[in-house]
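Protein Record: Sequence and Backbone Structure Tokens
======================================================
Tokens: labelled as protein backbone structure tokens, with as many entries as the chain has residues.
Task: work out the structure tokens from the sequence, keeping to the layout shown below.
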Amino acid sequence: MAARDFDADVLVVGLGPVGAVLTALLAQRGLTVVGIEKDMAVHPLPRAVHFDHEIMRLFQQLGIAEQVGRHARDLPDYEFRTADGKVLVNLAPPRQTQSGWGAGYMFHQPGLEGVLRERLASTALAEVRLGARLDGFAQDADGVTAETSGPDGVRTIRARYIVGCDGAWSPVREAIGGGVFDYQFDEPWLVVDVKAAEGSRLPHINIQLCDPARPTTCVLSGPGRHRWEFMLLPGEAPEAMLDDAVVRDLLGPWDCGPVEIERKAVYRFHGLVANRWRDGRALIAGDAAHQTPPFAGQGMCAGLRDAANLAWKIEAVIKGGAHDNLLNTYQTEREPHVRSAIELAIGMGRVVCMLDPEAAAQRNADMLAARASGAPPLPPLQAPAFADGCIVSGAPGAGSVFPQPSTDEGCRRLRLDDVLGEGAWLLSRKAVTETATGLLAPTLDDDRLVPFRTPLLAWLDRFGVDAVLVRPDRYVFGGGDPDQLVRAWTHSLAHPFSVER
């Protein structure tokens, strides 16, 4: 089918944070995108409350880090406490991160989504259709034909690919088929979001209260906001827990002073992973592909990493001549990341959710002893490097996040990503003889890299290599000889492995 017969290169279904970021990234890379969203306006109440440094780097890439920062505040310490206040473990945010931003941020989701909608409205290649619902789609060899309904009636959209960012009950996932893997972690919790009023006394750190009488989470949200999560006990009815008097009784022991209850809802925390993330020209991302309990704060983060991983690969296939099988590496790379985050969250949840007093007492004794000995009582919050996918498997640094050094220049912060811009980079001690379309290949003597030369040399020295090839999503393709890396990159895009699903 001729290019003029397509309404867009990509149809994105769902414009929550994941769909909005994916739409913005695709349009920024020169693709035409139609994004549809069944709701007419941004959901007005908070849901996710945390994102990490890698996600702020992604917002930086979209040019909205400053705007997002107005709806966020720095991640505080995270403490697990016994019912009587003893600290079982304290997780202090690291002072430095690979991405050159703070370790994490507590934020107000409606504010973030408002920034993303403004970003889409200013993007010529992105068309947003609100109040539009996906009714179904069909694939052929060249693309996807989707039927939607909305304020303008029934419409047909023709696109090269469709990506379902359409949530936990994803119609796109159902169309792809394959079912889901269930971690068998299913716990009901009451979530209460509040706004600070004059005279309120809200905690300044994030807390997991490991109380067998009522496991409770208490965390910061966006500026001037806070969240509590109370585990429902056996026999408690969700409807009864939503009563204002019940909520006030639960908040009472926290002595938080006057607060305005902004939202209250009962959720079931569970861990699920879709078995298939792709079927031909249909893909899924975010909650459509995986769902996690909130204890590690990685739900939205995982979905936005999906968007970053997928956007450059779709561009490479549509515009860069890459083989369609490159899209198979999306699930290959992202699924292990997702599973490690879900398993960490479930492990943390099992620590928190003990209702048996004797078991809880033993847990407390073990964790207090571990803390006294200096042993880490919880696994690290560190995602594994990609073991396979669009990388040079086994090469130095392959599959890890490439650091973003920064420096102060006058009154502003100068960051590597802003200086070098989009696309893949080959950063090398020496000039290369091989070339590749769309690959930026400066040596470390390049004037642009002078402010970052010391940390970049330190990375090359650490791995004992002359060069590193960095993918557009800022993950390392591999370190080694520069010419060999260029050849491997070209081959990897033209002949990626095929994954059977």
Observations:
- The chain has a mean pLDDT of 94.
- Residues 50 and 106 are 5 Å apart (CA to CA).
- The two ends are 27 Å apart (CA to CA).
